[in-house]
Amino acid sequence: MNIVAFGASISKTSINKAFAHFVASSFEEHDLNLLDLNSFPLPAFSVDIEKEPQYVAVVQDFISTLQIADLLVISMAEHNRSMTAAFKSLIDWSSRVQYDFLKGKKILLLSTSPGGFGGQNSLGLAIKILPMFGAEIINTFPLPKFYENFSPDNGILNEELSKALKEFLADTKTKLEW
């Protein structure tokens, strides 16, 4: 099985990228492709530039990368209580090139933030929006207070949240029949 994982942010130090990669790495027995959205440079979507070939090619490359996945692991970054402008624009671009660009894609949807709500506003928006383009949301998990609860070396530090993530992963594997 192929897993594609990324944080829905173009920040070079994205905590959501780190979290998505951490969670996706728990599927050790599967092939893992870790994406950085900076690999798909696009301006903000506009109908005035949507047909410019250099941008269409970038979007087609992004869609092709998603198509190889049996599972997408996406961690939603949050800016001002919404998804990032970069990720929203990527959705806009992708849906104009191929409306159902997520058709048949199973998605494990995560979020995290420095605050106590764990990026749940952007997570909620993704839950509403991504199925419109064909996605099947398999499971969701928000991680609050990233800097207090996560270490790149040790994973989730909070015992209760660590247990919740283990249960979440077991439930996800059951749903996927893996």
Structure summary:
This protein is α/β, with parallel strands linked by helices and 178 residues long. It is built from six helices and nine strands.
What's the overall average pLDDT, rounded?
A: 96
Shape: globular
Instruction: Give the neighbour order of strands across the main sheet.
Output: 2-1-3-6-7
Strand proportion: 15-25%
Q: Distance N terminus to C terminus?
A: 9 Å
CA radius of gyration? 16 Å
Number of strands: 9
Low-confidence stretches: none
Main sheet record: 5 strands, parallel
Structural class computed from helices and strand pairing: alpha/beta
- Share of helix, binned: 25-40%
Enumerate how many helices there are, as a single number. 6
Along the chain, the helix and strand elements come as EHEHEEEHEHEHEEH
